[in-house]
Design goal:
Blueprint (H helix, E strand, L loop, with lengths): L1 H12 L5 H20 L4 H9 L5 H30 L1 H22 L8 H9 L3 H4 L4 H14 L9
Helix pairs in contact: 1-2, 1-5, 3-4, 4-5, 6-8
Length: 160
């Protein structure tokens, strides 16, 4: 996405009026949409369903959806103002810089959850040290599940 947005900025600033510039801009916009669709686009839906415990998952998904819609609205509402202020090409360079910052943020603060069970992911986020290491051992998740089972009182009902 970052490279595609940067290429749109280049195509709109350096290659004005050239057929090559128009083709590069169109291909870059299509590439940006494709990479967004498989990358950062669905992340609010996937991440909120993985990192929050079951008791808070619905509220977290709702907040993620609100955040997603607010950010999309801000981008859409600010585009024309920014393009008048710093040119259309400059706007795409700014979007490219924001995309690069998002890569740095995700790489630094969002741990990998691929191949981990929901219990392991919950353990990862409950431990202040666990997510910094990026690794959770299976025994840690089993210990967490066992601990939670011990905390829940068992009620036996006799049905007559």
């Amino acid at each position: 996405m970052t490279a595609c947005l940067f290429c749109v900025g280049i195509a709109l600033s350096l290659l004005k009026g050239a057929h090559v510039g128009a083709a590069l801009a169109i291909l870059s916009v299509c590439g940006n949409v494709a990479f967004f669709s498989v990358g950062i686009g669905p992340i609010c839906w996937v991440l909120t369903s993985e990192i929050y415990p079951l008791r808070m998952r619905a509220q977290a998904a709702a907040l993620g959806a609100v955040g997603n819609r607010v950010c999309s609205g801000l981008v859409a509402m600010s585009f024309l103002s920014m393009s008048r202020w710093i040119t259309v090409a400059g706007t795409f360079f700014v979007f490219s810089a924001i995309s690069a910052l998002s890569i740095a943020f995700v790489h630094t603060f969002v741990p990998e959850t691929k191949g981990k069970s929901l219990e392991q992911i919950e353990s990862l986020f409950q431990s202040p040290i666990g997510w910094k290491n990026g690794q959770v051992e299976l025994e840690d998740a089993e210990h967490l599940v066992e601990k939670q089972q011990n905390q829940v009182p068992v009620i036996h009902a006799v049905i007559h």
